Amino acid sequence: MSDATATIRPDEAAHFGAMAADWWDPKGSSAMLHRLNPVRLGFVRGAIDRHWGGDIESVSPLAGKSAVDVGCGAGLLCEPLSRLGAQVTGVDAAPENAAAAAAHAEAAGLDIRYMAGEIGALDLGTFDLVTCMEVIEHVADKPAFIAALVSKLADAGLLILSTPNRTAASRLLLVGAAEAVGAVPKGTHHWDDFVTPEELTELLADAGLTVTATRGIAYRPGKGLHLSDDTSLNYILAARRA
Question: Can you give the CATH number for the domain in which 230 is found?
């Protein structure tokens, strides 16, 4: 795209903005995210402890640090990051989501700054922690989006991304089956836009980052969603400046 700051497709933002009202309903249109969030947080906490070498027993390992969650939706990750001690900013392309997130944080007594817009177009400075969960698969210009994320990362910062993998299994389960049974709203995923771990590692390397850890997010009946060595459906990774 000619405008390096324009990476989000308007129809994608509208799709997720329409879900804003019931984003916090664990049985609503974002039910899958509610099940996914604790698994992602497990990885995030481990990555934080490894990156900064903090006390693994600490309830506030991000005290004194800043964090931005890009594509924050209604704040499902921002609020736990705030409770871990960070000064948190949430950015979403859909104004409806930013508004819903701000209202929920206020009701919870959390001081979180929410902003609507393109991350590359916002003058926010840099952050110790940059997170971006289940977003890059919805982005038109992936190299420009990664460059925008990296521009917000402090020199000694930590970047964490999660996204579906582009495999036969993800086409069958995350797109076909998940939408057929209503686990995610129809039109949420476009399989051709999924990014493999190898592709994402290369995109990050091109932007000057080194991947330090990659884990799959897998599903098993009786166990549910969990961190795994199996990256065929979904994966989460941590990266730092090379």
Answer: 3.40.50.150
Alpha-helix residue ranges (DSSP H) falling in the chain? 10-17, 31-52, 78-83, 95-107, 142-151, 168-170, 178-180, 197-206
Q: What does the pLDDT look like over 38-64, one tens digit per residue?
A: 999 999 999 999 999 988 899 999 999
Q: Give the tens place of pLDDT for each residue, 215-237.
A: 999 988 899 899 999 999 999 99
Cα separation of 177 and 175, whole Å?
A: 6
In a domain, 95, yes or no: yes
> Domains in the chain: how many in total?
1
3 state DSSP class of 156: strand
**Which residue(s) pair with 235 in the sheet?**
163, 216
pTM (two decimals): 0.86
57 is a domain residue? yes
**Cα 180 to chain centroid, rounded:** 24
What is the residue range of 214's domain?
Answer: 10-241
- Answer whether residue 107 is part of any domain: yes
Of the pLDDT bands very low, low, confident and very high (cuts 50, 70, 90), residue 2 is very low
